[in-house]
């Protein structure tokens, strides 16, 4: 049963022995017509307002020492994760963000770039982060160990948090869907209502997890200045 349940996350679409599932990573951009970015529609205005709000928030977190255009990196990550999370809610579309292959591939190089930039250009500042202000001298060596471990596991927690939340929601939807054939006619309406409510919840989770991934990446970046 568990094998069939988790098989919904297996890449299975092959053309000429090439896995086509990962193309769903870019399906959001492919579905948007090119004129969308040029025309002034209500959706476009709302989209620009969202980007401006994210820019202002990320700029506040990064501080005045950040480089110009840095917020565009994290806005792009947010948009990419948002599209992938939402596309995975549609039937027969592969959810790439439910795999550590994608989430860890994004989180690890980004974290490595932050660490290399910080230790090369702001070495004293990075050493100061290992010992929080006000730490008793007796606990300083212990705090250095704790802060080092917490820094090392950051890319893993970023990747696992997003993938685990996407998997959990899809498993609930799959479990409810599998119970449909065994339910009586009177309970089918309750199943449909519960599926719709869960789908609304998963839509909220898709937005929240994209925001959490981008905001935590911004916070990690702000620590190297």
TrEMBL record:
CDD domains listed in its UniProt record: ATP-synt_Fo_a_6
CC annotations in GO: mitochondrial inner membrane; proton-transporting ATP synthase complex
Gene: ATP6
Membrane topology field: Multi-pass membrane protein
Localization per record: Membrane; Mitochondrion inner membrane
Source domain of life: Eukaryota
InterPro entries the record matches: ATP_synth_F0_asu (IPR000568), ATP_synth_F0_asu_AS (IPR023011), ATP_synth_F0_asu_bact/mt (IPR045083), F0_ATP_A_sf (IPR035908)
Keyword terms of this UniProt record: ATP synthesis, CF(0), Hydrogen ion transport, Ion transport, Membrane, Mitochondrion, Transmembrane, Transmembrane helix, Transport
The protein's name: ATP synthase subunit a
Entries under Gene3D superfamilies matching the protein: ATP synthase, F0 complex, subunit A
